[in-house]
Design brief:
Layout: E1 2-3, E2 13-14, H1 22-33, E3 41-44, E4 49-52, E5 57-61, H2 62-72, H3 77-80, E6 85-89, E7 100-106, H4 121-141, E8 147-159, E9 164-173, E10 180-188, E11 193-201, H5 205-218, E12 219-221, H6 242-246, H7 254-266, H8 280-286
Antiparallel strand pairs: 1-2, 3-4, 4-12, 5-6, 6-7, 7-11, 8-9, 9-10, 10-11
Helix pairs in contact: 1-8, 4-7
Length: 295
């Protein structure tokens, strides 16, 4: 199954499913043929930002991203709405080592980085782990599997010059064959934040780590939306700083966060479940968009 959510409240979670029957594979191939995989430079939103892709990536626009997530990765409509697009590595997107980058934009306002050098990431992790333990109890009570936040798969790092932040969390779900990788990249802008949520398994951590610098370099805000253009007289300011951004935009103060995130994680509406298949037929249909290189 693939599970895609928002922030830590429903972290981007990916599980593997079973191989479908021949009819399902044929249907997936038809869906794949309907998608337009874009190369080179693409514009996000209404001239909001630009993605300058390397030859190792292809891009799906908002509409095709919704189709891909819903019909190929089996997510319900709620999980794929309001996406700017999706970046896919130049490999078999249905293979065992598949991963992808879902791009969204949060117009919550200008996120101050004044706390960048003051954040104690070990302490933040302990707070998150405590919140997850409490939330896990409520998830179990609501009929979902228990889970735990194991730790940082990659500790948070903030590039103050580029105004880009990234980190990765390692989560473990009861009964899962491998841990879940929750890899996040944020690009700060004048009136909001671009989110690059990497959907993959823990086995892809090393590859994603190698690729992270390319991802960071590919995405940038356009003129008019730059962080440096913030106007305190007219522009909205977000209710949280970098620590809150890492915690999912919910961390305004520890007490509030611990109670709210437990409530959110306990809510069935925020857990998106769907089937994911290893669709060999679909790969045959779309590999022409990715050249001859395969995983």
């Amino acid at each position: 199954m693939v599970r895609i959510g928002v922030g830590l409240a429903a972290a981007a979670l990916l599980y593997w499913g079973s191989v479908p029957d021949a009819a399902a594979q044929e249907s997936a191939a038809d869906i794949a043929r309907s998608l337009t995989f874009r190369q080179g430079t693409v514009t996000l939103g209404n001239n909001l930002a630009t993605v300058k892709q390397t030859p190792d990536f292809r891009f799906l626009d908002s509409k095709d991203t919704e189709t891909f997530l819903n019909k190929l990765w089996g997510n319900p409509p709620e999980a794929s709405r309001n996406k700017l697009g999706m970046l896919l590595p130049n490999k078999n997107p249905m293979g065992a080592d598949r991963w992808a980058v879902v791009v969204t934009y949060d117009d919550a306002g200008y996120v101050s980085d004044a706390d960048a050098e003051k954040i104690n990431y070990d302490e933040l992790l302990r707070d998150l782990q405590e919140s997850v333990r409490e939330a896990s109890k409520q998830r179990v009570a609501n009929g979902y599997e228990a889970f735990e936040l194991i730790g940082w798969a990659r500790p948070p790092y903030y590039d103050k010059e580029a105004k880009k932040l990234y980190w990765a969390r390692r989560l473990r779900f009861a009964g899962a064959k491998e841990d879940t990788l929750n890899y996040e990249i944020r690009v700060l802008g004048r009136q909001g934040v671009l989110s690059l949520n990497v959907v993959g398994g823990i086995g892809q951590l090393e590859e994603i780590n190698r690729t992270a610098p390319d991802l960071l370099a590919m995405v940038s805000f356009n003129q008019g939306n730059l962080y440096s253009e913030f106007n305190p007289s007219t522009d909205k300011v977000a209710a949280y700083g970098l620590a809150g951004l890492i915690a999912g935009g919910l961390l305004t103060k520890a007490g509030f966060f611990k109670g709210l995130i437990a409530m959110l994680l306990a809510s069935k509406k925020l857990v998106f479940v769907g089937g994911l298949a290893l669709l060999a037929g679909a790969w045959t249909a779309i590999k022409r968009f990715f050249g001859s290189r395969q995983a």
